[in-house]
Amino acid sequence: MASSDFDGIILGMGNPLLDVSAVVDQEFLDKYEIKLNNAILAEDKHLPMYDEMSKKFSVEYIAGGSTQNSIKVAQWMLQIPGATSFMGSIGKDKYGEAMKKDATAAGVNVHYYEDESIATGTCGVCVMGGERSLIANLSAANCYKVEHLKKPENWALVEKAKFYYIAGFFLTVSPESIQLVREHAAANNKVFTMNLSAPFICEFFKDVQEKCIPYMDYVFGNETEARTFSRVHGWETDDVEQIAIKISQLPKATGTYKRTTVITQGADPVVVAEDGKVKKYPVILLPKEKLVDTNGAGDAFVGGFLAQLVHGKTIEECVRAGCYASNVVIQRSGCTYPEKPAFN
């Protein structure tokens, strides 16, 4: 394929958030009732936490948001300018400007909806012992409107793309937008992919998630999310391999592609289910002292995976690229990476 064939080939939609990241202590986690290796939406009790983090700990501000992370990593792995596009909602403020600058510098074609009345969303990233917990204060990210997607210059990105990736987090914001994109993908034999994203999505947004499942050609998630999905659906199994098979066998809206389920398990092998069979792929093991934080590990995995998928590579190669990208990201703070990938 010529590089022009990759123009806007991947489109992501999600919640662009500025990560407010710090290594914290147990006392702080207890005070705000935060569990490691989890992701939640901020409640009122969490709102003072962002200020307290910046006063008490050494804080880094990193452009983030699950889908945007994955799209940036896919862009980095592809090394073809403009191969990826992203839509979501930010505020008209300095954080929003910083995010736009960061994503554009990464080579992503961003079409943000900009809300004048509300601040750019932030995500508290609490790190302890290399594990992370995410507390998202969506703010402007929560204000994405389907009208923005329908504008000709934005819908053109949907038309141009051949692969779509939307994290489950966006289900809480604009299910109407997701519906338009998934129906376009199905009608045009394009590849539609989503992520389970967090236990709370599987549990409390089950109905909107279920409407999307028939359209999903690839379902990503981690072991905790998969087990929550199983429990919520009354499957009575905690076996990740069985759950992955069951997800892959849920009904499909079209027969163009079979569904593939890809479940990461931290340092344990990646579980891939398709055609009623499971394959397991080992990850690149990292000595504990090299682990900085797991923030963005799952996002980076998806980015690496998608970058090979658009090249028509095998599942094995897609997983290998995903493992490479997440291995790079967990050795750095947040979802960041060196200038060029060393993946061959």
Automatic annotation (TrEMBL):
Keyword Kinase set for record: yes
Official protein name in the record: Adenosine kinase
PROSITE patterns, sorted: PFKB_KINASES_2
Metal-binding listed as a keyword: no
Residue ranges that the Swiss-Prot or TrEMBL entry lists as coiled coil: none
CDD domains: adenosine_kinase
Domain Carbohydrate kinase PfkB: 29-338
Similarity field: Belongs to the carbohydrate kinase PfkB family.
Top-rank taxon, per record: Eukaryota
Cofactor: Mg(2+)
Enzyme Commission number: 2.7.1.20
Keyword annotations from UniProtKB, A to Z: ATP-binding, Host-virus interaction, Kinase, Magnesium, Nucleotide-binding, Purine salvage, Transferase
Catalytic reactions of this protein: adenosine + ATP = AMP + ADP + H(+)
Any one GO cellular component localisation term in the record: cytosol
Pfam family, one: PfkB
